[in-house]
Structure prediction request, 151 residues.
Amino acid sequence: MSPVIPIVTSLFAVVALFLLAEGVSHARKANKAARWPRAAAVLESAAVNEERDEDGVTWRAVVSYTYRVDGRAYTGDRIWFGHHDSNRRQTQQAILDELRAAPRLQARYNPERPEESCLMHGVTPAHVLRIAFSVALLVFSVGFGLLAHAT
Prediction:
């Protein structure tokens, strides 16, 4: 067996564990935010930003909003926990359209840390997909590593 295989499969497993931990953390926070108190929010700015790199173009909905808790003003920029770029501009634009169409925009804020907030909450299909991908990568990495070791 090549000495490279255990190193590569270990690296993939570490990456998978990191992605899994991050995915579970975002999903837990997104779910927890559903129970946070709400405050009326004002959307100060909203745009879909284009990012270009060697892999191509991705899009990201970016917002800034203000809200008040116990008379103190806060500014937030989180749409939801785990919000990521997309390769489809329309996906990100739909998020902004939904926020703009809300009759009363509300920020959910952490009662222990009111500066931590989000506009949307709950576990999304993107959270589930990220966790599923991470688990699949972990299973593949460990399985391939064990198979390579057995031969």
The chain has three helices and five strands.
